[in-house]
Amino acid sequence: xxxxxxxxxxxxxxxxxxxxxxxxxxxxxxxxxxxxxxxxxxxxxxxxxxxxxxxxxxxxxxxxxxxxxxxxxxxxxxxxxxxxxxxxxxxxxxxxxxxxxxxxxxxxxxxxxxxxxxxxxxxxxxxxxxxxxxxxxxxxxxxxxxxxxxxxxxxxxxxxxxxxxxxxxxxxxxxxxxxxxxxxxxxxxxxxxxxxxxxxxxxxxxxxxxxxxxxxxxxxxxxxxxxxxxxxxxxxxxxxxxxxxxxxxxxxxxxxxxxxxxxxxxxxxxxxxxxxxxxxxxxxxxxxxxxxxxxxxxxxxxxxxxxxxxxxxxxxxxxxxxxxxxxxxxxxxxxxxxxxxxxxxxxxxxxxxxxxxxxxxxxxxxxxxxxxxxxxxxxxxx
Length: 382
Fold this sequence. Notes:
two-stranded antiparallel sheet, 44% helix, alpha/beta, TIM Barrel, single chain, 382 residues, eight-stranded parallel barrel, 11 strands
């Protein structure tokens, strides 16, 4: 199994942004020396929910500081961008890192970000699909042209040409069935943020693989993003997870405004509308604890042996071959995040990478039940 680190630079009240960013850059610098396989950058804007507005720029920084690890985006939000510019950035990063890059895409769910860019949110799904099509054309062909609803591009070519074929290593995240179908038809793999009971994730993966096969593409094992709290004792690991993951809910609602229910009336986001009642209930301390208990239960939390057991179970359920972990979440102090990552790297990572039991098998995953505690319509995006 491959294992990576994701950098989620959450603004911390009372501290300058530069201090938070520097701490995450330092954590990123540990990825290769500690033996991890990949490093991932997010994309968010305007609120400090994740201070990473330019993931390819962030990864270009690490391209010059690393030799071995893969560099991934989780995700580039395509409706906010000119696809030609995205293709150019991908091609240049591909050269800078020697073909070590993976690319995740998404369409975003925060109205504040769409408003900030002046993009109608109701156009998100068709903009995503068309931008993705343009990017694949631009990277796969010496010259290309495109005549679509949003982009009309005369015959042209991007320069420099990529050194590998990055368009063959594209993934995308989705929540709604309609978005999953769009992604499957593009031939992309699935980038899954762990936010539901594992058996439900298995159902989503099975449906996605069926859609991929129907579109003529061989299904790929999903890449899964999760939070990890690894400690010498279960009590310490859980206390850290409950305290700092419990802080996520308010930062999520401050950014996405799920609790006001506005997404139920936005074309293409109707499926998100059902999260409103759940987030509104989180204002009650008892419901907040219940939601946090559930969320912690579906992350990787415990001693090194617990982490190995949980990741093994997750793999049996989902067929994953690449796990991406957040070790610094919810303003967890940097020294604790580093201790979290170092313990995992020392006691968990070698087994995941070398033990044949963690090699992954999509076929074996089909039969696994993976029952975890059920909950309502929780949505905790990266």
